[in-house]
Amino acid sequence: MPATNSTSVRYCLFLLLTIFALSCESTPPEQNKPGEAVQKVATLRLVGETMGTTYSVVLLSGELSAGTDSKAYLAELKGTLDSALVALNDEVSNWEKNSTVVRFNASGTGINVVEAPHFLANYRLADRVSAATEGAFEPTILPLTDYWGFGSGRERIEAGVDTAEVIRRKALVGLDKIILEGDTFLRKTVPGVTLDLGGSAKGYGTDLITSVLIERYGLKNFLVEIGGEMFAAGRKAEGQPWKIGINVPREEAAFSAIAETMPLENRAVATSGNYRNYYKVGGETYSHTLSPVTGFPERNRLLSASVTAPDCATADAYATACMVLGPEAAMKLIETRPELEAYFLVRDEQDEGMVPLISSGLQALFGKE
To answer: Tell me, what's the pLDDT at 368?
Structure first.
């Protein structure tokens, strides 16, 4: 059997990020169970489960109306959020048997998607980011992720690679093999092409929760997180920006090891990396970042990519693309898009440590100017 470490990088980030986001709480975040709401002096915290991971919402108690029963409020809020997230999963999850994306993948020529707004939003985002990154973000890469053991949930246990099979599966990769007709029917032009919208789904779910908190509940200051993807609205009770922790991107690093902290206000951040989602076979390490061009796991000097954007789905998609592109090409891309900023951790040339690579808009924040 191979040596494995399939713990999701997103879950790792969740644990670390909440340490900083919830620093005003006296109870450690990991003591709270999914579904449990805990009220402290200045904050209310709600935790639940979704997308194979957890979600977390931190609110300022001062924003609730006087006399509000906080437990009842959080229970009602959790019900609303859980319903919204179930509806999202019913459209974009590759693990829900009758989801929109599963039905599309099983179809011969395509399906009607007129009643799947979440699916359509993620598909359109994927189409935009794929074009902007020249295919580095590729939602049709599922045949390859299955082959390498990251899509099906089963690691490859044999040593060696069947290059012919990789080439065969790579022929099914490419958004040019799918056409959206009249915003109603998503058609396959090549039989066997499939979609995986997981590259933006957690970020989109974070945005979905954010919209509920703002539009339905009228909240202005809060922190939302799904599996490490985050949106920070307003500020904390102390009037300071929410502070986010970025992991040390090393396989052997403890979950509590922080490389850098980043203030965040009215903005989203998503981080992608290979250091927690990989396995080993015959001495070879296989990481979950795959190149749509070669069909093989991508190996470059970029250890982790944290991307900030106005919305979390966009940050999520670009963080994934950056890992494929590598540090230089990824930073060049970020600098051409004014809505994006990035903090990269890059393996140094001697392979003995790591150095930060920071976009121009964030350099002053980290004292690098």
So the answer is: 66
